[in-house]
């Protein structure tokens, strides 16, 4: 065994990302709060997750989350929770790309569409950014060096402020004025410990990935027994109607759609979620809806994840209610031949036929 292989075999987890909440209190959070650790099959047989000790054999899940690597009893604090790991796998089955939305990012200056470029001339909203000191946690020596140099800028700044904005001298917050002053003044980089581009992975303005959800590009095609297709049809659930469309649940994610009952007639039947819709007493949210995942976006400004889906439309819109036969429901036709996806949708739309016959 080589030295490198031996090193990896004996390596243990030294640290995990800081959790965003407690396991018990935030168990139902809609976003992951802990790092999920997965054990490969060879290590899981020994219940080895890279911790300081092996976990009990009664743990049957190969996914765990660690709240603390070492507690007061000298044991790791973990829970066998892998829900978000399975949600990630479900999302990857969608086969859709994930994009990042941020006004300070632009794809024109970036050769990689997965990581949009950042224009350093845009988005200067803080003194640290204007100085190029966007570092997560500077050391005490670096902080002392920067502080000593910044003190020398105090008198020139006050003179500039009294000359240009004398009415703002008494203001408590002068952040905008300081940024404007620094943009008009050439900062001595030799005296200021600037690390703006030394560690690019520390800055979301320079590098913003997709959280590992998907690295697919636009225009991806899928090879299926029915030919090459550009979209997948997956079973989902109807949630509720909105003023701008409808909401659906797909693979553990809530998706929004601009499609309403005006476009897809059977959505009118599902709009009433408070009473059963068939003789068996099934409600609207119990029916399986054929959905096509369209796109996903990370909105860094609003700090949310936007997921767009589209319900499969009825090709025969002349019939009242939109319910005719299952063969009239189909997704986008395959590129490599005739549309044979009716067989795939028959199992998904069988439940919806009972609603149309009511």
TrEMBL record:
Q: Which GO terms describe its molecular function?
A: structural constituent of ribosome
Gene Ontology cellular-component annotations? mitochondrial small ribosomal subunit
Q: What is this protein called in UniProt?
A: Uncharacterized protein
Regions crossing the membrane: none
Q: One of this protein's GO BP terms?
A: mitochondrial translational initiation
Origin organism of this chain?
Pichia angusta
Query: What Pfam families does the annotation carry?
Result: Mit_ribos_Mrp51
Q: Where is this region: Disordered?
A: 317-338
At the top level, the lineage of the source is Eukaryota
